[in-house]
Amino acid sequence: MQGWFNIWEYIKVIQYINKLKDKNHMIISLDAEKAFDKIQHPFMIKVLERSGIQGPYLNKIKAIYSKPVANIKVNVEKLEAFPLKSGTRQGCPISPYLFNILLEVLARAI
Which part of the chain is the Reverse transcriptase domain (predicted)? Predict the structure, then answer.
């Protein structure tokens, strides 16, 4: 059964924490599945600005994400381009770094 091992590990951690005398603990579970696809571009730019990224680096990232579009090709026919409103670019070498910066902001907020 897929995922059963993870559930069992969660149960063991909860049982361990329940046995502790100091009950000042918190368990947080994050599901990052398809997280790259869900990042909102304006939010990403704000986080980068507040993280101290500036100048030509920020300008290049803004240029990449200012008006992104996607094209779909079915057999030989290219469909009409449509705007992308969220997500980091697949295959782009900076996408994992952008995601890590955003994840760091979340971790600090927790």
Answer: 1-110
